[in-house]
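Onboarding guide, step 5: your first structure request.
Type a short instruction followed by the sequence, for example:

Predict the 3D structure of this protein.
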Amino acid sequence: MNLKDCYNFNDFRKLAKKKLPAPIFHYIDGGSDDEVTLNRNTNAFNDCDLVPNILASVGEPDLSTTIFGRKIDMPLFLSPTAMQSLYTPEGDKASARAAEKYGTMYSMSTMASFSIEEVAEISNCPKLFQLYVHKDQSITDDLIDRCRVANFDGLCLTVDTLVAGNRERDHRTGFTTPPKLTLESLLSFAMRPEWVFKYLTNKKFELANIKNKTDKGTNISKSVIDYINEQYDPAMNWKDAEYCIKRWNGPFALKGVMSVDDAKRAVDIGCTAIMISNHGGRQLDGSRSPFDQVKAISDAVGDKLEIILDGGVRRGTHVLKALAAGAKACSFGKMFLFSLGAGGQQGVERALHNMHSEIRRNMILMGCKNLKEFNNSKIIFKK
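The system replies with structure tokens like these:
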């Protein structure tokens, strides 16, 4: 199996599983506790049907939309995800270049493998930076200020990771940053010699955006869970979010909003967008899926800020259902990470190509010329 055989999420997942050591594969694949929410994120889309219109003279549909002040060529972009050099040596650079090729937005995690400045230098695509509030405020301030200098288009503050979720797969596999060999993982690494060779002969693993502020997770073997619990501020509150918005003074989203009340408060403190997200089912297991909440949140605040659905997206029809329910765009993580692990930049390009083709084809089948035509009349909820 190779990239040309990858037509959907499951194909990329299978190929990534063949290429990545088990601890790294399961870090992408897993969720928290019993992984109920992880699975619900995608299954929720099946509780809704699309309603097409015929003879609409669609022609060539317009897939473009505008988010964070930038036009993108399709209503789907790359979610901010940590430590991408674990999947391919080029990591975030590969993702940013693929996003640029397909005219969409690249998002950088605080815990990226390459720095804000390095990625800004190699790609002109729209860029979003994902921020965490650290206990050491100078780290947070430094990240905001560097994004401004590097001309990032927007910031999103992740608000659902005050403590790390109970990711039992990571406990079982002994996943750490940087990876270390254990009795449990030794065989898995040994069976992936190509990955091991690339990892040992390329740039040393580091959390590039914070390496000059803390050595946690960079110079010592430390689990991601330990890093989150030690470095992120569990006392973060609305005043902290408002402080970040004012310091940035540009397009800003809260990532991790799941309730109508929180969406309303996001408007009140000056957010221009929200990302409806449960962190890919990796935090509070048993919570609602993002798609479950889109319509209610859109009905409440959809005319006041941009709504982005983040979580569970695996098909072009998922994107169109989210738009009809009230989202302006979607972002996805697991699918593009599997494609990154399966084939580097070419893998991400393949995933974006597939999704663009699906969205375009299904817009024609729906009888919709542009994204504005997707509204509540285009979907029926079964429940």
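Each response can be followed by summary notes, for example: Residues 3-381 form a domain with the TIM Barrel fold (CATH 3.20.20.70).
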